[in-house]
Amino acid sequence: MAAASIEEIQGFLLDVKMAIVRKKISLVRRKENLECLAKHGWSIDDILFGISALTYRNYISGPEEDDDPRFNGDIWKFGHIIDGTECYIKIKLVVVKDGELLVCLSFHEPIYEMRYPYKGPP
């Protein structure tokens, strides 16, 4: 699958930042996410700050269709270094009645080496 264009990524991230400003956020409470928070002493605000700081250089892949039929919206994957730790971030925007909801599906240290098409971290 070809990488999204820089313009597509920037457009998506603008919508993500607007969802954060509007406090339309959901963090999926997966074991890996919770362990990462506990290990590094990070709060939800730390995660949101990390997501807010994403640029096209942090892009890994997406948009990809979500295989979970309960949710609409495409999955996007990013990497970001927070407090010296590389983090894998998987997010999506879900259309809800009153706008878009940012859903953070994954936020943890990477399991595999991450490749950044637009030369982001590390």
Number of domains: 1
Rg measurement, Å: 14 Å
- The averaged pLDDT comes out at 87
Overall outline? globular
SSE-based structural type: alpha+beta
Instruction: Assign the CATH class.
Output: Alpha Beta
How is the CATH topology named? YaeB-like fold
* Unreliable stretches covering 5 or more consecutive residues: none
Largest sheet, spatial ordering of strands: 1-5-4-3-2
Helical content stands at 25-40%
Report the sheet-strand fraction.
25-35%
- Encode the helix/strand succession as letters: HEHHEEEE
Instruction: Please report the number of helical segments.
Output: 3
- What does the oligomeric state look like here? single chain
Biggest beta sheet attributes: 5 strands, mixed
Taking the alpha carbons of the first and last residues, their distance comes to 23 Å
Report the strand count.
5
- What would CATH call the architecture? 2-Layer Sandwich
Task: Provide tags for this entry.
29% helix, 122 residues, 5-stranded mixed sheet, alpha+beta, globular, 34% strand
Description:
- The protein contains three helices and five strands, in the order αβααββββ.
- It has 122 residues and is α+β, with helices and mostly antiparallel strands.
- The chain has one domain (6-108): YaeB-like fold, CATH 3.30.2310.
- Strands 1-5-4-3-2 form a five-stranded mixed beta sheet.
- Strand 3 (74-82) and strand 4 form a beta hairpin.
